[in-house]
Amino acid sequence: MVTTTKWLTLTPQGLYCIPGQFYIDPTSLVSSAIITHGHSDHALAGHHKILATPETVAIMQLRYGIDSTTHWQSLSYFQSLLINQVKVLFLPAGHVLGSAQIVLEYDHNRVIISGDYKRRFDPTCMPFEALNCDTFITEATFGLPVFKHPPIEHELNKLLHSLETFSTCHLVGVYPLGKCQRLIKSLRIINYQEPIYLHGALIKLCQLYETFGVKLGELRLANTLDTKSAAGKIVLCPPSSLNDRWTRRFGESIKAQASGWMQIRARAKQKAIDLPLIISDHADWPELVQTMTEVNPYEIWVTHGQEEALVYYATKNGYQAQALHLMGYEEDGN
To answer: TM segments (predicted)?
Structure first.
């Protein structure tokens, strides 16, 4: 059996599989790329060839256009294919619709690249699937013991309680892919069936989710509201739009943001958020540790996040561990 470092290496473009001759989530344009999910920091437009789940392919084509890549190829969960001498398998990652862990097998050595993932229930995507491997490459966005995310129901009840208490418009900043649809669907599950109003930038991805069977209930364009009619309504928008002139149409409003980073009070205060909602599409510290235990690899590589703390914990618990320090991955709404 060859060791992982003999056939999987870090390059300026990102993680590269030598025998397979492809990159995983490359941060600059390459000839052949496997994409874990549709967030723009992982899914660049312009690669010559892209392999991803059908959902991620659809997301990328919606965002970038079908002509943004010369060759599209999709692979469904739990199916595999052989690329040169490397077996490639996709497992659900539980991050957003279509998000996948990339399982690579070569010369009796199995590597799993987690991509971004979470372990909480999400009604808009398939749950994370744990599989044993030799090397596990994990994200660590919230890789500090202080990060323990509350149940989403707790945060949504905060929103609904505020809505009952203050009869003003509630503007909620959500990332357009994943967070938006999860928040809507989760509100429906706890029986909020009123129309939810959307910034125009959120509409197309919600429609795409619907085509994949994720029913979101009645959605309306936010620009149909005015100061009077916006009272008591939930309006979703990208976080960057919370302080735009666009919000003036709603009159007095309460500004909320759904993000794991809202656990940090200073960040919420800095962004002038009235109602922080700690809702994350990434694993928190207990879930990172849980996943490490369930996957039970010989070696752990930690990337994009709080790498050092998780490397230290893994080493203390008997794993070989190192930080990859992959560059180019930014916050995706978290």
So the answer is: none
Q: What does DSSP say about strands 49-52 and 32-34: parallel, antiparallel, or unpaired?
A: parallel
Q: Where do the domains of the chain lie? A: 4-146+282-323, 152-277
And the tokens for 70? 């010369």
Whether 23 contacts 17, CB under 8 Å? yes
Tokens, residue 192: 């909020």
Edge-first strand order for the sheet with 275-277 is: 219-221, 196-198, 234-237, 169-173, 253-258, 275-277
Digits of tens for pLDDT over the chain (334 positions)?
Answer: 456 778 999 999 999 999 999 999 999 999 999 999 999 989 998 999 999 999 999 999 999 999 999 999 999 999 999 999 999 999 999 999 999 999 999 999 999 999 999 999 999 999 999 999 999 999 999 999 999 999 999 999 999 999 999 989 999 999 999 999 999 999 999 999 999 999 999 999 999 999 999 999 999 999 999 999 999 999 999 999 999 999 999 999 999 999 999 999 999 999 999 999 999 999 999 999 999 999 999 999 999 888 899 999 999 999 999 998 764 445 455 6
Selection from 83, 96, 79 nearest residue 33 by Cα: 83
Angle formed at CA 264 by CA 27 and CA 196, multiple of 5 degrees: 80
CATH architecture of 4-146+282-323: 4-Layer Sandwich (3.60)
What is the rounded distance in angstroms from the CA atom of residue 172 to the CA atom of residue 293?
35
Q: Count of CB atoms within 10 A of residue 19's CB?
A: 16
Whole-structure pTM value: 0.95
